[in-house]
Amino acid sequence: MSIGWTGRTREAAIRALPPGKLLPDEQPAYVASWIYVFGVLTLSALAIVLTSGTVLALAGPAWWHTSALGHFVNSLHLWSVELFFFFMVIHLWGKFFMAAWRGRRAMTWITGVVAFATSIGTAFTGYLVQQNFDSQWISTQAKDGLNSVGIGAFFNVLNFGQMLLWHVILLPLVLGVLVVGHILLVRLRGVVPPIPHTVDHTDAAEDKS
Amino acid sequence: MNTTETAHQTRPYDLVKEFVIALVAVAALTVVLAAVFSSPDEKPITLASWAKAAPGDFIATSAAELAGTSTSAAYGAPYNHVPGAGQKLGPLPLQRWAGVRSPIDPAQDFVIGPLTAAPQDPALATALATYRAAAPDQRHKQAASYADALSKAPAGDSAKVAPGDYGTTPVLTARLLDLARGGGLDGTLLTEGGFYSSDYTRPLLFLADGTYLADQATAQHLTGNQWGMMNETGNYPGQAWLWLYTFWYQVPPYKTSTNADALIWATMAALTVLLAAIPFIPGLRSIPRWSGIYRLIWRDHYRRQR
Amino acid sequence: MDPAALPASPINLDHPGHYLHWGVIQLSVANLVVIAAMIVVFVLALLLPFPKGKGPS
Q: What ipTM was estimated for this complex?
């Protein structure tokens, strides 16, 4: 009897990422450097960004200008974003110097770069929706760059409502999908081994470069 | 998984515990930073505060809107159709191709429309009627003459402008200043679409046409040629991650190009693709190997192998 | 915004910023501190010994 689409999807998922591979309780012995913790630090900072952002969203966009508690939550949001980028850039440096794309891990690297670019866009829209002097200046400046390549006609940084929705829904959604994909790829391929230990086709080519 | 990887030794490693510890540590650090440093919230400039603080600039900007010489009036896409306006990426007029998606007629939208909607007295009603009856060329010429005379008046004071043929421009701009000072213009520019508003395109474009906004930004080191994109008001750290984007604006050929924005966008897009493509680019992908930093990261592993 | 409604933060960063200039480069002290801290943390992450668990199994 056929197991159907659902059954086949389940079996493919389990084949690709069996529980022991999805949440392993062991790691290769070479995973022994502080540089490895910057991925999880980035993820933690993102969790704080999302949590503080959710609290800001609960009370609406004007709350943080009129309430001391609101302003404190805004401070949490700002500093968690600063930490998020802080850890993410160190993570990027670390993975670059480990050439962590070796061994069929190019897509892990690419999703990371796209997530970084998406984070920059998400942070940028955050600056636009503060409803203060920063937002006025940043939006009127940024419009020229976006307009110059035709993006501004569709992504209007002077339109507060549009930017608010991009900031609180659309971009976080895209970033969330990218981050989940990135982490699943890390689990799928495993942590990159020390240079020059991978022997698959891509790396054999790279070893000669 | 290939054979050399499976051949590596393993040891217990608690990923969930690591995540929980990291989460608690980052949360604590965030709370400390937020409590110690707070966050900036520089008040927005309203059209009322602009009109009160810099009436000369406000009048000059209003005259430029009527003359069709302001930044927004000469902008082109996506706000209006202006022949030859808009940046190009090489031969590609991407800005013009995207079309006029947020139509703005600065003279009408920023000056005449709000004055028409404001409470009328005979003097204003007459001025508006005269303005509407005049030919567009004449309106532009009179407003341009007034803007020119304003720029030559002591301290840009509209009360000290030399006499000339300015048509209705002095009355209209003075009335717009009054309307703005009373707070009426902030509401009018927004509510032209209806009761609710979430689109600030018009008031922001009008505000940015003046020099008052830019002067405040310059004082806070926020302008393009001050690397302002990565700066924040006060002593707060800003978007340091925009360092490369803002860097290009400081160096030739971008610095002096009339298409700087388009060129820099294209450069940054190309560099982002390059960063993503590093795994496939011979030479670039070998920098980690040449740098030798990996020897530090995996020093235990290499020591064990010896 | 009513400033009185804000809790006083121990270190007020709302003063005019400090900026450094080296030729074409202009940098706020706040951003310099952040960037320098990133480099220091990166170097420490490379150099500091990582606590080992129960050793290779």
A: 0.94
